[in-house]
Backbone:
């Protein structure tokens, strides 16, 4: 019998590496499809919250957000978020227009056999659009379509990728040791802050707050749509968190799944209890927002947290929901779907929780949150003001009454 | 040229094993996400069947079932279903509270490179909640929310895991050679029996059966919702059956897919024909329930049956649907969505069909079905009586009329 | 230390091959589930377009199409499409009734470790049914249910597999070098042509076209349903295109994903602009059809096109939508959902675009499109006439007014 030659051995190594590469890469593509579904989730959620007269408008906005998001991320955003060597001190960089394969690109070695360039692009592009979708709910029922689309383009093309680069693109936050698995800060604080700014700039819907300080409830149009939206978001979130592991590592991905499932379930229980304490009734809307709160809450640390910690963090996130929603109403921020509560406050809690419950530095997490919040705040105000001064942000009172 | 050293060879073996492990494990996680979607499917199905006044109530119940299911399975159920060595004669065991990694846990060897501990947990947790969801449809429009949630907690935490242990956890049914791939008995007979018991304890909806023996049809509220629900359940069922192979074994999983697709399609044709024979009209509701009947029917043997057998078994399952629905009405069991028909009778047919069409012992299948039925029957009556005596099961006639 | 024996080496090679096989095969099964979801997408899309009185009818048709499609493809279609050696000159062949494993079948070597026989069957069966579903929208609101089901059976069982064999089964078009990744011609021209023929044979809905040449708009019943349908189709299309690679090849599949995402987004922008140019308003329906147009447009060449080309091709496909819809109205082809526009014209554009933008011969693409179109045209007219002469195609004017 002859010996095995090194060539035969190398050939077999290639085969094994290809198999692991295929398993890793398809996991991320499956996750991409799940994250795509979140866009339908957001669309249904928001369509369920708005009044019937505005439902077509909100569906149109959500459809355009994902289309604009994919294209602008392709043309500019991806190059801003992953500039490679073209980075100025870890704060800003640009790899050029269009998604261009790096020189000497080899699929198998590009990311150590975990994913290809195009997988990275399409997975990240689906993420990018979610940040803008968060805004869509908070500004519903009164924003001009052109102003919303303009704001979306700027947010997805410039703001989101720049802060995203700080952490995920290898910028200064990454070097500091900031930890944010699937984007408590990079997605939810970004989207939530932009939502808050635009809701403030727009002012509340007509009739939302009485002159006497009363809060008028504008009831959900369609609770089944809200429920469908939340279930689809939940479905997609397994890909959002599970794909963010950026490989198919069995132990890590499966723990992320368990943590995601348990954190969200605990969020529902938390919100149910808090809403019962406040209103003495079971509240489906609050419970559904509690699920989203729980999901946001465990998004930053789903890879580091234990299931027991996830239950606690999700529970607290859910518990906060009814109170934070009310708090925003007290300061007259009218957010028809509760996006600022779920995403901004939930994202903050989730990012800080990583600093509390794991070995990641709390201070670094805090600094990261503040800087992402501040950058997005300034950027959003700037773009918001410019749009207000040019296109105008808000539809006429008559059109608002009549429906968009 | 030098020879390959045993160390190099071992390293390559590890790489290959990791690749297969990743492929296996991600398959189960994908299946987990599909099974999750079944909960939205059940929610839509039931929301479509109930009267508009009860739609929010049913959505709330379905939302809580999955949340309670995940958490109670984490805290207790998983330890009851997979007690490991802590088993008393194969009938009962408990590994302890909370999902605890076994001593000396190694992800790759835990299940022979097929899945990790956390994959097993989250996949099984999604399953556990489906059993309780089946009940939700049968008791719709008249059960007290607190009584339903109480019953759900007991069913998912204790009853389902105990019978589940008998087969899937390696208990006495497993040792007898009982075969039930994805749970004709372990899920559908359990859920269907509990549904039957609660429907009997509750009694029919007001006005459902006339004093003169007539049956008053309470029409579906929203057939599009029912259709969406069935398609989502169908979608999820590919993961339910395909994931139950517990590995990505290409030949086995793909045959399970073909069998699942063909059995469900044949179920639709069977129900269509039977409903046409009875009512002389095409009946969408019956056809949709025929799909579910076909799916339940091939759930126990999807890995052993041939596609041709699947077509026959699914066809018979569908054919039965209109007759069994009518039979339950004759004995005054009011089940608004037909859950007892689809799940209890369909599950029984499916589990016995394995004993008829394959080499598995028919007697063992029969014994397994009877024991699972009997245990769940007794357990459900016990819990149902206790709840009736304490919280009360049924809302007031006025509240029932008014909507929940 | 001893040397590695050839037996040990072979064993390790088998392990590596199994791992790659599992990764490849599960990718296709995941794609199968995604393609399945397209059937719910079509159902919702069409349910949203028709008038409320016809919604149950359309849901019934879409439910039956997938059931009939799976079964007839199992009994006959698969054997016609993949006849193996039993082919007469590359135009026609039949491997026999029922899906039969070939002699000496070995899962691992059947398709070079890419997929099993049953994976091929179930993936292709899901595809087959989509062709018939396309017809369902175009003939909505006036076709007799029996005539539609009869037509579906003939189309899925005979017409689709025969032309499918020409290319995908290794027939004459394959030998000519025709390229059609996921079926611009084999699915969309087939479905679109059959839809056109049946819409012409049926004539327009009562009241659709005035005697004075006016076109009466019959508004969509439910735009949220249309939006949900398009998002679900979009979701499924990633599996439709990504699975058509027929392996999990990381670079190829990921590029197909990027191309699919970008082409569809560009389609939306194209349709938005064209609709704005025509109607001076943002039109959600046109935008949604633009997404579908973009998806159809990049379906033939998603594996060969660059992302930049995909943006262009999708954009043009979307741009055409409002004009082609209007053109069909001018020639009095009443297609309630725009299926002929999206699928026939979009499919033609997509198949030819491969001949324009890649090294594939334009002439071959043209010949392929013409032959598939001509065959389906003749077949559909033949079946349509026979059904008209026997069952009758159209419901009575009274029943049409009243709803199906």
Residues:
């Amino acid at each position: 019998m002859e010996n095995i030659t090194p060539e035969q051995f190398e050939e077999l190594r290639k085969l094994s590496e290809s198999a692991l590469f295929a398993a890793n890469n398809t996991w991320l593509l499956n996750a991409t499809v799940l994250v795509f579904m979140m866009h339908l989730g957001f669309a249904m959620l928001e369509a369920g919250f708005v009044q019937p007269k505005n439902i077509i408008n909100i569906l149109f906005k959500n459809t355009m957000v994902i289309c604009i998001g994919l294209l602008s991320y392709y043309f500019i955003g991806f190059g801003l978020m992953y500039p490679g060597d073209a980075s100025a001190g870890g704060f800003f960089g640009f790899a050029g227009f269009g998604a261009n394969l790096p020189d000497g690109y080899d699929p198998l070695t590009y990311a150590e056999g975990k994913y290809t360039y195009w997988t990275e692009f399409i997975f990240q592009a689906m993420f990018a659009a979610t940040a803008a979708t968060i805004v869509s709910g908070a500004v519903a029922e009164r924003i001009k379509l052109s102003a919303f689309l303009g704001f979306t383009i700027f947010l997805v093309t410039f703001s989101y990728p720049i802060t995203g680069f700080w952490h995920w693109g290898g910028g200064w936050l990454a070097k500091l040791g900031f930890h944010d698995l699937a984007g408590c800060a990079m997605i939810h604080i970004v989207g939530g802050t932009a939502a808050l700014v635009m809701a403030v700039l727009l002012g509340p819907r007509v009739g939302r707050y009485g002159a006497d300080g009363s809060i008028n409830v504008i009831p959900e149009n369609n609770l089944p749509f809200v429920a469908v939206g939340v279930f689809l978001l939940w479905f997609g979130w397994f890909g959002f968190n599970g794909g963010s592991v950026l490989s198919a590592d069995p132990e890590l991905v499966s723990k992320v799944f368990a943590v995601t499932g348990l954190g969200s379930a605990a969020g529902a229980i938390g919100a149910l209890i808090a809403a019962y304490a406040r209103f003495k009734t079971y509240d489906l809307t609050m419970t559904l927002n509690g699920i989203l709160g729980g999901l946001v809450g465990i998004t930053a640390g789903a890879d580091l947290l234990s299931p027991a910690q996830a239950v606690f963090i999700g529970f607290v996130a859910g518990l906060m929901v009814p109170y934070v929603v009310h708090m925003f109403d007290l300061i007259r921020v009218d957010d028809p779907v509760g996006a600022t509560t779920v995403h901004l406050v939930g994202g903050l809690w989730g990012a800080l929780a990583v600093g509390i419950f794991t070995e990641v530095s709390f201070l670094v997490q805090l600094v990261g949150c503040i800087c992402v919040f501040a950058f997005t705040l300034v950027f959003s105000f700037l773009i918001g003001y410019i749009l207000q001064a040019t296109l105008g942000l808000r539809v006429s009172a008559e059109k608002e009454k009549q429906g968009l």
User: Anything to note?
Assistant: The first helix of chain A runs from residue 6 to 49. The mean pLDDT of chain A is 93.
